[in-house]
Amino acid sequence: MRGFAASVVAWQQRHGRHDLPWQASRDPYRVWLAEVMLQQTQVAAVIPYYRRFLERFPDVGTLAAASQDEVLRLWSGLGYYARGRNLHAAARALAAAGEFPRTADGLRKLPGVGRTTAGAIAVFAFGRRAAILDGNVKRVLARCFGVQGEARQWALAERLLPRRDLRTYTQALMDLGATVCARARPDCDRCPVARGCVARREGRIGELPASRARKALPTRRATWYVHLQAGKVLLERRREAGLWGGLWTFPERRLRGAKITRRLPALEHGFTHFRLRAQPVLCAAPGNAAPGQLWLDLADAPGAAVPTPVRRVLRALLPGGTHQPA
After folding, report:
1. Cα angle for residues 57, 293, 222 (degrees, 5° grid)
2. Which residue among 32, 49, 183, 205 is least crowded, i.e. fewest CB within 10 A of its CB?
3. If the chain, 326 residues long, is cut into consecutive pieces of 10 residues, what is the mean pLDDT of each piece?
C-alpha cells in the first residue's frame, strides 16, 4: 500500500478530469446536487441536468420552495426517480435546519444520501477525512490489491486515506476507475499503480472484481390507454411507492365510455430488475377524469414530469410525429 495515495494524486494532477462543472465549487449545495445525480449515472448524462437544476434552483431555498412536480419535471429522463424525490425532501429538511451537516455521519441522515455520497460531500465540500466506495473505486481496489467483499474494501479504503490532498485523492480514485481501470479493456499502460497491481501481476484482470451472475430479467407487460380529446391528453400521477412514483404517466385502465381507435407500436424500457413492455392504445375519450388524473394540452405534455418512454409516445402524437391520431 506504500505510495498508493501519492501515486494516484500525482496522476490526477496531470491526467485526471479537471473540467467537470462541479469540481471547482466548495459550495455544499452544488457538491451534494452533483453527487446525488452521479449515483448510478454516468458523468456525461449528468452534466446537462446539473446545469439545468442550478439555473432553476440555484440554492437549497429555491429547491425546497419548489413543488415536487416541478423537481421531477426537471429530473425527468435522468432515471432512478427516487433520487429526485429524496433530493426535494432533503432540501426541505436542510432549509428547515438552516445549514448542511459538516460530517459524513451527519450527511448520511439526509434522505437519499448513503455512505459513499456522504463521504464525497464531506471531502469535497468540507475537506473532511472520509472514504468513498462507488463502483469505480471498488474496481480499482479489487484489482490493485486483490481485495473483494464490501466490508473488506471499506476497511481498505479507510486505511488508504492520505493525511493531505484528500480532495485530489478522492477525485483521483473516481477518475482512475472511470478513464483507465475500466470494466472492459483497462488501459494498464497508463495506470499510475500498475507496477503493484495484483490483478495485472497474476493475470486476473478479467476476473477482478468478480462479476455477479446475471439473471434473466423478467418482463412486465402493461397497456397504456392514451386518451385524447380536443387537443388534450389524459395523464395519471403515479403513487410515490411504485414505479415512477410522483411522475405522470398514461392510465392503465380505460375511462368508461372511451372508444379504442387503434393500437400504437409497443415499446420496451429496461430497469435494474426487469424490462417493461408497454402497449399504448389510442382512445377517443369523454371529458371525465378520475381523482389523480389530469387533462393536459398535448403540446405541453412532453415537458411535464413524465418518464422517458411516456415522453416518446407523447412526442410521436404531436404534429409531424409518427403516431398522429387520425
Report:
1. 100
2. 183
3. 91 96 96 97 96 98 97 94 96 97 98 98 98 96 96 97 96 97 95 96 93 84 95 93 90 93 94 93 87 94 95 93 71
Helix (H, G, I), strand (E, B) or coil at 259: strand
Domains, the chain, in order of start with CATH, read 4-201 (1.10.340.30), 219-317 (3.90.79.10)
Known catalytic membership, residue 35: yes
pTM for the complete prediction?
0.91
Q: Could you give the angle at the alpha carbon of 71 between the alpha carbons of 61 and 133, nearest 5°?
A: 85
Q: Packing angle between helix 115-126 and helix 166-179, nearest 10 degrees?
A: 130
Say how far residue 172 (Cα) sits from the centre of its chain: 21
Active-site residue, from 35, 158, 236, 252: 35
3-state secondary structure of 260: strand
What is 6-59 written as a DSSP string?
Answer: HHHHHHHHHHS----TTTT---HHHHHHHHHHTTTS-HHHHHHHHHHHHHH--S
